[in-house]
Amino acid sequence: MDIRPIRTEADYEWALHEIEQYFDREPEPGTKKADRFDVLASLIEGYEATHWPIEAPDPIAAVKFRMEQAGYKQADLARLLGSRSRASEVLSRRRALTLEYAFKLHHEWRIPAEVLLQPYHVETGRKRSTGSADA
Question: Which fold has domain 59-131?
Fold first, then answer.
């Protein structure tokens, strides 16, 4: 198997070129070609994660994205959180997600808990504060 570590952009370009051949014709599982594809994919994924990490969205952006993705409306969020005003306040960043809300969003809407539990900006009317799942 002619595979090498990806240490440079040239190595990365080489790996992309090598894996490209498998996109049109996916190799049969259990073959040497399938093994080569898996190794190349892992190398490329590792290189990209190191050189171009994608940061998780803030919790409210994640909730809004999930709503858009699943076709949920604010009324759906209101049912989940217990009231229309809570849903409105959460979406407008006037109320922080509580641990209970984060749990419900994770359990019911499958939003990753690590995204929901990170701190984010909440508008308080008086001063800027940071929301968290503990608030």
Answer: 434 Repressor (Amino-terminal Domain) (1.10.260)
